[in-house]
Amino acid sequence: EPEVTQTPSHQVTQMGQEVILRCVPISNHLYFYWYRQILGQKVEFLVSFYNNEISEKSEIFDDQFSVERPDGSNFTLKIRSTKLEDSAMYFCASREDGNYGYTFGSGTRLTVV
Amino acid sequence: AQTVTQSQPEMSVQEAETVTLSCTYDTSESNYYLFWYKQPPSRQMILVIRQEAYKQQNATENRFSVNFQKAAKSFSLKISDSQLGDTAMYFCAFIEGAQKLVFGQGTRLTINP
What we know:
Largest sheet of chain A: 7 strands, mixed
Oligomer: heterodimer
CATH superfamily of chain A: Immunoglobulins
CATH architecture of chain A: Sandwich
Distance between the termini of chain B: 41 Å
Shape of chain B: globular
Shape of chain A: globular
């Protein structure tokens, strides 16, 4: 069964450093998403991406965040200057056009120290 | 804004029992999709079951079934013959149109041997 692949599975970074979280969505999917989950809390929407541009973003997704689909297969989330409160599980998801069954990746656990 | 409410933070049942997890949501739309996701200790998000609002028949996937009450905006998940591997966080989620998936706060389900 096709999978959404996320790397790395766990990343530890110093506060103020830039991090890039990587995702490879399912190949025929057209909609891409990033969500995050702070430990013990619910899953929160960050951003959606379609047709090579952001289609919606939440208030969490401020100027410190950016997304890119640099080569037609990867979908990346960049955090420019990490803060302690960015520590969370970050999930990438994708879906087909007309099918609302999201497929989630296994997540990247980001720890900011 | 759409909201999803799970009123049971934690539930615990014995193996082989049946358990029902509650979910209510708020929307003014008539067509939308509802989901239950399972998050085991590995923290991966796994789709358990989905329901299209325009379908009157309740969705069923093996031991998992839903009770979809559209007028009451209720979407409960029933797990029959519960197994130890069902121990996880369960999230109810909602999407309308091409918008983002909105999650409830989650219910931590423990199946005891």
